[in-house]
Amino acid sequence: MTGITTTLKELHRGERDLEHDLLAAAERHRADHEFHHVATDVARWSREHTRRLAEAGRAYGLDLGGPADNPTPGALAALREKAAEALGRRPEAGLLLLHDLRELHLAATRNSLHWEMLAQAAQAARDEQLLELASTCHPQTLRQIRWTNTMLKELSPQLLLTVR
């Protein structure tokens, strides 16, 4: 196994996990409409990255599979929605949102580091397809990082000062 294949596997898992975590956080904070919609939108980027990484992995003999399907049964979805609505009215929901944002930020940052490593390796190996993949996907990961960072900056003062 080469360093490139190891990085492809790590990045594939990281993007798949980030998509899952973004969607789970979006459900948990459904009452915060802005967060819910943006988290759902940026999760699509990670889903696309996962798909593209699986395609790229084939050239290196990897079977990474595509993005994991996340079906949500109807009864479970309704229960999550009711819980999110109830939690959305409690001060503890703010701390949970900050926790989720911190974890999302760290996960996206970890993926960003892997994209950077992959781009450097692709450049050294003169692998134009892999370099194009990293050059296309990494900016979206950087946008995920900027979004979580902005949300943390905006929400921290308000939420940390109001929770008792």
Cα radius of gyration in angstroms: 18 Å
Q: Note the gap between the termini.
A: 51 Å
The average pLDDT is 87
Total separate domains = 1
* Main sheet overview: none
CATH topology: Ferritin
Which key terms come to mind for this protein?
164 residues, mainly alpha, Ferritin, elongated, DUF892 domain-containing protein
Characterization of the model:
The protein has 164 residues and is mainly alpha-helical. The chain has one domain: Ferritin (Up-down Bundle). It has helices at 3-28, 33-58, 74-88, 92-125, 128-162. Helix 1 (3-28) runs antiparallel to helix 2. It is elongated and about 55 Å long.
Question: Summed up, what is this model?
Answer:
This is DUF892 domain-containing protein. The chain has 164 residues and is mainly alpha-helical.
